[in-house]
Structures are given as C-alpha cells and as structure tokens.
Amino acid sequence: MATTTYPRIAIIGRGPGGLTLALTLHRRGVPFTVYERETSADSRAHLGGMLDLGYESGQRALRENGLGEVFARNSRPEADSFRAYDPEGNLLFAKDPDPNQDPLDVRPEIDRSVLRKILVDAIPANAVKWSHALASVRDLGNGSRELTFANGNTAVVDILVGADGATTRASDTKKPELQDVVSMLGNGSMFSFGHEMMLGSQLNGNGRIRTYAWFPGPEDGKLPNEPAEARKVLLEIFKNRAPSLRKLIEYCNDGAIYQRSLYRLPLDHKWEHVPGVMILGDAAHLMSPAAGAGVNLAMLDALELGIVLADTINGARTVEEREAAVATWEKERIEAANHFAVIANTNVQAWTSTEDPASILQSMFKRMGDSAVRRKA
C-alpha cells in the first residue's frame, strides 16, 4: 500500500486564524505544529472583546470542523444588539435581535477568550509549542526553511504559514455608579460618534464592559504610563462627551488600560506567490476593526487554506500542483478581503471626522446593510 508522505507544516500564531487552520488540518488527518510566543493557553486570557461571527465565514469555519454545536452553546445571540449615540448621549439608533429574523443573518457574539479555548481544546495538546516567538527564517534552498525562535530552538519545515497578525478599557456592570451607562449599552455594543473621535463599548459574557476610545493623533503619541494620568488625558480628549459616557473612562480598571495604534495595509495590495510560504488573516490583509470583518476573514482564510492543503496532500498531488492550488486560494481571498478593507477604511475615516453623527450612521449602514455581505463579514 502506498503511504502518504506529509510535509512539515509550521503555523505561526495561535489566534483564531492559526487555530482554525490547525483544526482544519487536524480534522483531515494532516499533521502540523503551531508555534506561539505566549507561554501557555492562559496567557493574556483577559484580553480581547466580543467577536460576532458571520454565518458563511466564522460560523462556517466552525461548522465544517465539527464545532457548530459547541459554538451555539457558547455564543450569545442576544448580544447581536447595537446602540449609537451622539456626543451628548442622545440615542440615534437602536437594533435588537429580531425573533423573526432569518437565522442566517444573525451574528452571535462570542468572547475572544472563549473562542480561543474552544479551538485550542479541539486540537492535540502536543501540537502547540508555547514560548516560541519566531525570530528568523532561513531558506535552505531545497524547498524547506529553517525557523529560529527567540528561545534558541530551531525547526526545519516544508510549509510555513504566517497567522500571527499585526485601546481597551474594562469596567464592571455591577457598579451602581455605572447603571446609567449600562442601560445605554444594552446587551451588546454601543458607539458614540462625533468631534473627530469615537467611544465604543461591548458587554462581554463575563459581565465586563470593554471600551475602545478612538481618536486621531501622531503615530508616536503615547499615553502616560501611570493609569491615573492616562485617565486624565483621555478625559480631556473626551471632555465634550456626555457625563454618562465619560464614566467609561472614569471607572476603567487601572490594570486594563492598553494603547493600540490602528494600522492597515494599502488597499488592493497584492504579492507574487512564494512557494512553501502562506499568510492569512491580518498578516495578509490587515485593516482596522471598523468593518467588523477581521476575525471572520481570518477564519475563512484558514478553513479554505486548510482544505486546499489537505486535499492536495491527502490526494498525493505534486508539490507543483499544491502550489498552484494555494496561489489560486491566495488570489481569491485577497480579493474578497479587499472589499471589506475599503469599507473599514471608509468607516474609520468617518468615525474620526467632523461629520454629523447621524450622517455617519446613515452612510455606514448603506455600506454594510446588505445581508449577503453581513453573512460573509
């Protein structure tokens, strides 16, 4: 009997994209190794907000890997709600889940940490190498590459997949002084637009409010390291927000203030296929979160790449045939991602503009209102 010779596959990063690829390969009998810089599955478990998964993207990646029911048990359809306010706290728009809505158009929310645990638990524990931050890659000239990690370890691989991608505040909904803003938030997400900045919050499944403060500034701009001083700076920046909304900053957890710059790759960017090397998710099409599409695109990238690799490897196709199939996948996925990159870029410019908040919402819903787009984002 002929036996399958499996290539040595390295997946860099255990985010949703990397883990979805690992799961897709595992379910189809293809071995792999995930290399992750964090020290354990519990590292930074408190970071990350809610993720809403589209039916034909993130949810599809889970369904086709046997995790549809697990997702249904751990997700929160009731959190697919949305509130929008102007700077003074006046409600501009509200949307709650509709019991008569087509189930395909519902985007259940799931905490990032919960999704990550579901994926990690579904692959072999020994398939993940923790404390392995990739330091360098050396082409060995025979179709393989040597990886060197910051801890001094090395590995030789035939297929290298980059899935390691590219400011959050947390408060507790039980605090009595926050009840007015909690009532504004509802069960899901809310945003306040205007004055060239946006204040947005999500209600996580653990009862925490995670808030994102978006505002334009110099790339090298830094908040003070001292939480109390950082809070003062943010309160000054958002001084024109309604008192209820400012509480999201006033009562934020001192240990949960993180500054993040927003980056994106150029729109409609492309590259020549490199045999044996693939990238997916933010590594391939980094965009701001303003289209709500990043995790869904990453998981769909990973599912479809995993299927391509498994089919060509298990089908004993030649390396040349495998690379041709991967190149086709690359082209299709970058074209699909660019559609959402344009939406994200337009939205973030609007959210940090002087445009009237009501006009911002109207334009945003026009760009993202199509149900077919919503399912895939």
What can you see in these coordinates?
There is one protein chain. Helices cover 36% and strands 19% of the residues. It starts with 8 loop residues before the first strand and ends with a helix. The strands form four sheets. It has a six-stranded mixed beta sheet. Strands 7-2-1-11-16 form a five-stranded parallel beta sheet, with helices on one face. The model has no long low-confidence stretch (mean pLDDT 89). It is built from twelve helices and 16 strands. The chain has two domains: 9-82 and 110-166 and 264-376, FAD/NAD(P)-binding domain (3-Layer(bba) Sandwich); 168-256, no CATH class. By secondary structure, it is of the alpha/beta class.
